[in-house]
Amino acid sequence: MPEITEAELKKQIEKSNFSRLYFLHGQEKYLLALYAKKLIAKAGGTAFPDFNLQRFGDTASIDEIASAVEALPFMADRKCVAVSDLNVEGLRAQESAKLEELVKSIPDSTVLVFYLPSVEIDYKANKKWKKFIALANEAGVTVHIGKRSTSELEKALCSAAAKRGCELSRQNAGRIIRSCGNSMQTLFNELDKLCAYVQEGEITTQTIDRIVVKNLEARVYDLSKAIVSADYDRAYKVLDLLFQQNEEPVSVLAVLSSAYVDMYRVRMSVQGGFGVTEPAKHFDYARKEFRLTNAERDAARLTTSILRQSLQALLNADTALKSARGDRRIVMEKLIAELLLIAEKERVG
């Protein structure tokens, strides 16, 4: 059977119309775990769960899983065997052969669920995962659960807030996303905090800024905005906060470099007669197109020469950090000073 959609998976769970095999994978781990929980609970049933629902983690052998799959259900039409985070990539040849045999011979009385609540797959590079997905589609169904778009996340947050007796505007939902990133687990954790704080009524911008914890990308974005605005005090306050929170300088530099790369790509795209979102056709901006529109706004303050000089400064800092020459904090402080001076020297307007 081919890969099915999330909507089709929901229908199968609701109607108890199960395939023999499910493989749930993808980047949105919150939804993946939620679907897996519902599927496993429904497929395992309520009769004698100690016998008819067996769970295995990433340390289980293929022989252990096979024994559970082959065992008959106890006083029920079917049983469920659930396996989380199976390390297909790390299996030896003999274990891979056993897994292939198992997938091809699942009895009708068993629903075997493989799901990846933690493991990420490199879909392009890893041949073992490609082969396993193909096998799973032949024996049952696979469901890819990808990241949600900003619009979908905004709607989900507004709806979840309403269910908790609070009011959240789309604009403020977007503000939460910009602060926390697009992980639904993180977003709903922050929403729970906001609703507990507000209890009922509107979740305001002020409340969001006071309660929500910004992720690394959001804090470094604040840093880049301060730099391109030549706001010395703000830039060093944000950098100091990042050090206080024990963020790795290499990680901070990587995110800061990405912000400048976005600005440069947008600048070159516009100068070449293309649109702001043209880079998304050539680079990985899936579900992150907003970065390009933000980059267009920020890059308007800087000349092309400034962007090129800034990218060179970032490259020099990256070399210094990775070669462990000197104090890592000093390297970052010198970089911020250099970027600020470059921005101040040739500011547009």
Automatic annotation (TrEMBL):
Q: Which organism is it from?
A: Caproiciproducens galactitolivorans
What is the reaction catalyzed? DNA(n) + a 2'-deoxyribonucleoside 5'-triphosphate = DNA(n+1) + diphosphate
Q: What is this protein called?
A: DNA polymerase III subunit delta
Kindly indicate whether the keyword Nucleotidyltransferase belongs to this entry: yes
Tell me which family the UniProt entry assigns to this protein: Belongs to the DNA polymerase HolA subunit family.
Q: SUPFAM superfamilies from the entry?
A: P-loop containing nucleoside triphosphate hydrolases (SSF52540), post-AAA+ oligomerization domain-like (SSF48019)
Q: What is its EC number?
A: 2.7.7.7
Q: Which GO terms describe its biological process?
A: DNA-templated DNA replication
